[in-house]
Amino acid sequence: MPQDVVIRPVARADHAQWLPLWEGYNLFYERIGPAAIPPAVTQANWERFFDAYEPMHALVAERDGRLIGLTHYLYHRTTTATAPFCYLQDLFTTADARGRGVGRALIEAVYVAARRAGSPRVYWQTHETNATAMRLYDQVGDRSGFVVYRKPL
């Protein structure tokens, strides 16, 4: 981890800095116009991070008082184990933080949290065109070989 970066749980006071990161992440995945995440969903996500009964969590990367990255992860039951799996759902860093170990540090912090929670696995997905991220992911995880299907309802 870069020495000048702190990885920590998101705090309520972080909202003004977290929101542009979240919006940047959604812009990266072209969630704009009709595909945009509704403000009510963004607000619900934010509230879930602070609800002890929710399985959703958020970590941020901070340098000199400025948030430069985020990750959101959640725990869920699985039919293949008794302990919950950890799904790393979102990972994003500012452009100036990329290639400097911030993304890796966020992923490794999720690994630590998942171990503490007793989870036997952390997994995630990315778009097949996200070659930059995949270079990192190939170093910190194993490709499962599974293909994701979905059907909007």
Describe this structure in words.
The protein has helices spanning 15-28, 39-48, 102-116, 131-140, and strands spanning 6-9, 56-63, 66-78, 81-93, 122-123. The longest helix has 15 residues, at 102-116. With 153 residues, it is of the alpha+beta class. It is built from 4 helices and 5 strands, in the order βααβββαβα. A hairpin with a 2-residue loop joins strand 2 and strand 3 (66-78).
Question: How do the helices and strands line up, and which of them pair or pack?
Answer:
Layout: E1 6-9, H1 15-28, H2 39-48, E2 56-63, E3 66-78, E4 81-93, H3 102-116, E5 122-123, H4 131-140
Parallel strand pairs: 4-5
Antiparallel strand pairs: 1-2, 2-3, 3-4
